Amino acid sequence: MTFKQMFTSSVGKKLVMAFTGIFLILFLVVHAGLNACIWAMDGGLMFNKAGHFMGSFVVPRVLEIGLFVGIFLHIIQGYMLTLENRSKRSVGYAVNYSKGSKWYSRSMAILGTLLLMFLVMHIYHFWTPSRLGGMGNIKALDTFVLNGVEYHNLYGEMQLIFENPLVVILYVLACGSLAYHLAHGFQSAFKTIGVHNKRYHTLISVIGYGFAIIIPLTFAMMPISFYFKWVN
Amino acid sequence: MSHTTMNLKVKVWRQRNATAAGAFVTYDVAGISDEMSFLEMLDVLNERLITEGGEPIAFDHDCREGICGMCSLYINGKPHGPWQANTTCQLHMRAFKDGETIVIEPWRANSFPIVKDLTVDRSAFDRIIQAGGYISVNTGNAVDGNSLPIEKAKADDAFAAAMCIGCGACVAACKNSSAMLFLSAKVSHLALLPQGDSERKIRVLSMVAQMDKEGFGSCTNTGACEATCPKEISIANIARLNKEYLGASLTAE
Fold first, then answer.
1. Residues of B in contact with A74 (CB under 8 A)
2. Which ipTM was obtained for this model?
3. What is the pLDDT of residue A4?
4. Which residues of chain B are modeled with pLDDT < 70?
5. Where are the domains positioned within chain B?
6. Looking at the domain that runs over B5-105, which CATH code has it been given?
7. Residue A139 CB coordination number (10 Å)
8. Which residue of A has its CA nearest to B23?
9. Do B78 and A99 touch (CB under 8 A)?
């Protein structure tokens, strides 16, 4: 058994989905935690400092490469598995069996596609100007200098972008997709890596549903907070 | 208990052979007792079709007591019909109302090709079992049953997994046509017992490889299989199979 055989069997492909999924779940914790600095009520200073740390320190930069690899693998593998699984039943049923499973567990590819569409918009809004601003005709972020260190004003960029109600609505809808994607994905990932002990599985399910509510809700509150000027 | 009769419409998938194009045909079935089993209702219909010089509807059945795994049928959008933890042969006509239209389809999965009408070829399951769903035992005298002590909880779990009758309802219910509940029941049953321990790694790897070769889909943990399984095989077995696979594939040479 080679590693290639290990990860290309039907179970192995799911292992790739599960491991990358859990990695992305961990990323969401970091992302939500850092972004929560917007609620420090200090005009965004703490948030901009956190952003500066993430952008200039070597560890998060290396992890960022891992993040892109993880997202990429999760997306490609997800689509390949969906297409492959669909090809296994050429003639469908006249009456579909929908009672035995939750709609969102059957709709991971659609929820994931909505998240991918959101991701493109989100990267364009924040990551591109922050990392690639000034290159070619990509808009650069405003900067400010504090104690001789130059900071990007990402907070100001958030204020600007979330003035648009349509953007706020799209972000909140994306958080809804994320919630349902996580509601199935969180506990499914642990099943795929082999957690079958009932005690742990119950614990993971409870944590999973809690995570699927708390994290998307935290993210959704960010554009809402800016739009309604709850933060200054 | 009062005895009632009902008149039904039965919409059945008819297909002459494996390669012919199939279509739904609707039959009126009159005077069906609510105490009949579902297969007896089909028998009544078939008797009539034969009398009228038509071709009877082909469907699989054998023991008609819910233990052999031969009966199938996807009834009104659920494998084995509306009742929980039940096979089609043990489904009774009291589950339906007078005047109702019942839609009967064969298991749909490319790995279960249709032989005729509602009969599908489930030999892919046999080949998965042949790939490792057994233990190798030297011939000779039968070993005393009590020579290997097995704790009660494990014996119960192994037995619950061994309850699988291999009917294929899990594949029929799964949106991915995955055979993982079936496979996991077989792998769990033997992995939980000392008799199955020595071959556990090669077993899970060979059986997963055979399942993939047969063209079943992968598991996305939706739980449709567990919800429809006539023997209520737990989806926790799939997680155990995944653990067996991960362990075996990491440590195998």
1. none
2. 0.91
3. 86
4. 1-2
5. 5-105, 123-251
6. 3.10.20.30
7. 10
8. A94
9. yes
B222: nearest CB among A5, A92, A105: A105
Q: Which residue has the tokens 């995955």?
A: B178
Crossing angle (nearest 10°) for helices B123-130 and B200-213? 150
The reply to whether B123-251 shares the fold of B5-105 is no
For chain B, the straight-line distance linking the first and the last C-alpha, in angstroms and rounded, comes to 64
The amino acid present at B64, given as its one-letter code, is R
CB contacts, 8 Å: B249 with chain A: 1, 5-6, 9, 12
Task: Give whole-number Cα distances, B228 to A149, B154, B186, B234, in Å.
Answer: 63, 24, 18, 11
Question: Mind listing the pLDDT tens digit for each residue in A175-205?
Answer: 999 999 999 999 999 999 999 988 998 999 9
- Our CA-based measurement puts residue B196 at a distance from the nearest CA of chain A, in whole angstroms, of 19
Q: State how many domains chain A has.
A: 1
CATH of domain B123-251: 1.10.1060.10
Minimal Cβ distance to A100: which of B110, B212, B227 = B227
Answer yes or no: is A96 within a domain: no
In a domain, A215, yes or no: yes
- pLDDT tens string A43-63: 999 999 999 999 889 999 999
Cβ within 8 Å, pair A100-B103? no
The string of DSSP codes covering B34-67 is TTSBHHHHHHHHHHHHHHTT-PPPP---SSSSS-
Cβ contact B11:B25 at 8 Å: yes
